[in-house]
User: Fold this.
Amino acid sequence: MSQATTNPSTPQTANAALATQIVTALQEANFIEGCDAPLASALLTTETAKAGDWRQLLEKKLAPTTTTDHAATHHTA
Amino acid sequence: MPQRITQLRLTNFRGATQPVTIKFTPEKGGVKTNVVVIFGENGTGKSTIVDALDVIGNTSFGSLIRPGIQAPQKYVASLTRDAQSVEAELTTQAGNTRKATLSGKTVVISSGSADAVMPEIRVLRRRDLLQLIEATPAKRYEAIQKFIAVSGVDSAEAALRVDCNAVERQLGTAEATRAQAAESLQTLWEQERQPGEPVQNALTWAKHRASENVSELQSRLGFLAKGPAGIQQLAGIVAQWQQSQAKFTLEQDGLDTANTALQDQNQDATARSTELISLLSSAERYLAPPVEPSSCPLCDNSVQADALRSRIQTQLAQLQTSRLLLQKVTEAQARFKTASDEKTRCNQELVRVIQSMGAHFTKHEPAAVKELHIDWPAQGIELAMANDDTSIKVAALSEKLVAVKEAVQSECDTLQTRLAVYNNIKTQAQALTKSTDEVTHLQAVLDRLRKACTLVVNKRRDFVQAILDEIIGEVNALYQFIHPGEKIGLHRLEMDDAKRASLDQHATFEDKEGVVPQAYFSESHLDTFGFCLWLALAKRDNPKQLVLVLDDVFTSVDAQHFRRISDLLAAQAANFQQVIIATHNRLWHDYYKISGASVHLLKLERWTLARGLRPHEDQILATELAAALEADNFDRQAVASKAGVLLENVLDNLAAYYECSLKYRPGRGHTLGDLLRTTKRLFLTAKVRRIRRDTHGHPLAPHLEENWMEIALKQHHEKLDAIKLIRNEVGAHFNALGNDWSDNDVREFGQAAYDLAEALACQQCGHIPKNLRTDHRGCGCDAKYQTQLYPLSLN
Assistant:
């Protein structure tokens, strides 16, 4: 079956379509920045996501907020 | 569609004991014939053709894969032939070829050219029909997995969950650390809080405490800690000095005693005896071997060493007592010297230690020592000389200091405890602050991870469910085509989220939802249900590349449902590259033979070992009638018969569509006269409206009115009604009356029947329009080009 043509309904294209939806939703929910979209897309499509990858990605936007929170905590304490 | 199969060539493949080529006509008179119907009674070789398509398209041994057949490859070759001689090759409309041969257990596929585009072949056999319906949820998932599997997202989701769990554990640890730090600090606060210190909470208090400058305390503790140690050291050296003093006295007494004893002995001996013993002892050692001198070292006279040494030893024996006393004195002197030296060292050490202590206490005097009112600078001067008097004073001073040593130690311990509490408060406050920060951060991270996880899970569920719902919608649409108006269908396909690779199936029956189809559906309903699910999945799976092959799939459906299935396939065939139907059912074959304008009919004649497969081109009835009308050797009986059958079929369909009344004739069908009579009222107003087509058979623009033509049907009916007797008198029975009809009459009857069938049938799908539209009936073609039959009804 080496001559089989590309199938538009392959799992890969379904996965890619879903990954695109998820990346858009993650951006809309303010979980990631636009510049991190390719990284999120890679996590969702390449089956190479490993422990810590998502945390690293989602902590990116969190870091400045946390610093501010820390300062506030210290101040009130 | 250049991938449509146009030819299948078989050599020694299964029933093809002789090389055979089966040709599939891709179009007929400008009309695409992408439905191929292969009709043959049982044992004529239908499965051979289907298996050949399966082996070329899917490298599958097709119908040979069944229980009881261990090595299907053994049975691919025709009887009396070997596997090496087997070949099955298909050719597409574009001229591309693909060939299957056998090599051991393996099917070897070779293509005419490497970049040839070939269709994908999907085969459905009767035994596979219920596979999807009756399969376990896991097996059903496998079948549909191709459309709903999102392994990349699944993998990412799993990694996301791993991160959630890891952060959750970290948060638990951080919270425990914080709680422990808070509890410890609270305890410290309650124990150590002093009046005037902050009272808000333990952390505020701790931070106040931690801000305290403790460097002076630390310095003071460092000096204070030397006090007890110094006193201890001093006391130790005093003890040593006292021991050395005692020893000194003892050794002095011993020396005195030894000297006295020697003096007493010397009073009885000559004054020189002591010296003599000494001299003789030296001379004896001098004369001892190995030197043994031969002359005296004093007078230089010759001597005999042996004799002289012997004489000296005799003299010494006589002087032995004096010699022993002298030896004791010598030993006592040595011990006395050692004791004296030790006492001197102790005296010196005491001075060094008391000087050092004095200097230290001058600057950092503990409170307990201060109460002794010692003038340390003065003491330093007074106790500067190392001797027994000084040591006696130091010993007295040491005694006083030892008495206050415990107090000094207590002072030191108090200070140390204070510093330890300070450090503890500081450590716990830092731990509380750090763990609180960590908890805050981890909570925020966990919150984001959980929300992201929920987002991914929901998106994945919605995505998959949307696909499943689309499949359900398609299945139900197909199912309603076959079973219109029946309250039966597929209700829901849904993933089992706990098991994931599992797909549950729920059907509707009457008004009840969520039923198990196998429990409620009839055999026929299950067959068509399985078929619709298979077809719906095929439609999702790149249908323009697919050739569907149905191998004698339907055996349990009645004539009415056969028609609907045929109509459905005719309508759905446009979605696919090609549909190949193999059937032994004559009802189905006849249905296509009567109304299959877009169908290529093949008939398989009786198979024999010697001749193998015998495919023959078959024609639809109208085409056969047209050929009979044009034949040089005019067969009037054949024309009358074929025209009659065609006409009766057309009128029977119209009578059914328009619910015309027919006289009931028990055990007999209706005659042509009956059918013409009952449809007469319909034909008074009946007309067909159809799109004009170009020379290639393509429809012209449908939005332009001039591209549509109308055909009134009244005159067709009138003409046929006038000569209807030809059907029986020439085409059916031996009847002398038939001789009254000329060949021209018969030709006219045949032509009129053909014209009516041609006028009514859609040029694309070959069917008489029957589907109810707004004001007319339409065929199953694309809505823009549908052939329209008026009126809608007779009421």
Summary: DSSP finds 24 helices and 21 strands in chain B. Residues 152-269+319-442 of chain B form one domain.
